[in-house]
What we know:
By secondary structure, this protein is mostly helical. The chain contains 13 helices and no strands.
Amino acid sequence: MRREAAPSTDTLLDIYRRLEVSYDIDAWHWRAATDWLEICVGAILVQHTAWANVERALDRLRGAGALSLTALATLPEAELAELVRPAGMPLQKAHRLKQFAALVERRGGPERLLSRPVDELRTALLDTPGIGPETADVILLYAAGRPVFAIDAYARRLFRRLGLGPQGERYDTWQRWFEERIPGDVGLYRRYRAGIVLHCKETCRARPRCPDCCLLDVCPTGQSTLG
């Protein structure tokens, strides 16, 4: 596939603007006003499952009065696992939530933890069982308000189809590729990621709906699909 070696900032911002016009990004589940803990819990629970399942698990936690740092730290792991069961892998995810709660407490609470320098905070998150690069960067971006672009499979899919992106599939390579080309603005990064996810869920699926795509005229994959 043809790939633009060094797309400009304008190219990537044009893609963003098209997504912003086409989707209700303001309805994205993580907003500026979303509670930090809900973001972190959701980021851990969404691993290997759909967001609808995470919402069910979050509702169960709220209903049990368990969507708090104290509850996550003190609830028996088996009880916590039952509450988050709709998100799948209940025992593993309950353990990960308790490990995250322990990290927050160990670092002096959420304000002290989330205000740490980016590299230090990211290292602390990655050292926590069950938190990988994507989850860590989602927490950095949405909960800590840091200009870190979180990469996922949707971003790779979309930009590969557009004939863009770096060589290889390494997470840090993709992240660097985005951050070198897109201004380091927290609000833009949050909305761009949301637009990518919404687009790939609704249009640029595994089996894409190319005729409905707002990027069709700049997408060689879509154009070749339609002949």
